[in-house]
Amino acid sequence: MAGVILDLPLQGARVRIEDAGDGSLRIVRLSDGLAAGHVRLEDRGRELFVDALCIDTAARGYGLGSETARLVREAAERGPWDALTAWAPPHLGLSVYFWCRMGLRPLHGEGPGGGIAFRRELRATHLDLRALIPRHSSALALSTQHSPCYSTLSPLIPSSAGG
Predict the structure, then answer these.
(1) Is the overall model pTM greater than 0.70, yes or no?
(2) Contacts by 130-134 with C-beta closer than 8 Å and gap 24+?
(3) Which of 84, 96, 102, 137 is deepest in the core (most CB within 10 A)?
């Protein structure tokens, strides 16, 4: 976790994330104050990598992992990183589902340890919607006539477009 700067502790409704003193972060269950797992993060320049997010077996099933991932993502959004990345080991299929639920998308190719790598962009990219609308109404009518996106674009089309 060297070089990772997060404002600690992070606290949600069920967990507090604090420095464990060994290069990892401790996940503390608020209901009883007991350690429920750990997180290891790595600063990779423009991305914050979640090397491990582990909830102890006895503490699983109560949303502690989901809340921990959300708190780390929110802290990363406030930090200098452009992306949050993580991975799912090849032998833990539920971790694939977990990272997808947390809003990360799988990346093409083999990930760390033969698993699957995941990524979530943290910085919004601005898209100029005007670039999506053709300049001439006849082109607009032709391009949207058979498009399944027509109903999505129709509020953007001026009434004089004739489409």
Answers:
(1) yes
(2) 132/156, 133/157
(3) 84
Q: Using the 8-state DSSP alphabet, how is residue 31 labeled?
A: T
Domain boundaries, the chain: 10-121, 132-157
Amino acid identity at 41: L
**Looking up tokens 């996106």, which residue turns up?**
149
Superfamily of domain 10-121 in the CATH hierarchy: Gcn5-related N-acetyltransferase (GNAT) (3.40.630.30)
SS3 string of 83-120? Answer: EEEEEECCCCHHHHHHHHHCCCEECCCCCHHHCEEEEE
Biggest CA–CA distance in the chain, Å, is 66
CA distance linking residue 50 with residue 39, whole number of Å: 7
Q: 39, 15 in Cβ contact below 8 A?
A: no
Kindly report, residue by residue over 42-78, the tens digit of the pLDDT.
Answer: 999 999 999 999 999 999 999 999 999 999 999 999 9
How sure is the predictor about 133, in pLDDT bands with cuts at 50, 70 and 90?
Answer: low
Say which residues have a Cβ less than 8 Å from residue 56's Cβ, sequence separation at least 6.
Answer: 35, 36, 37
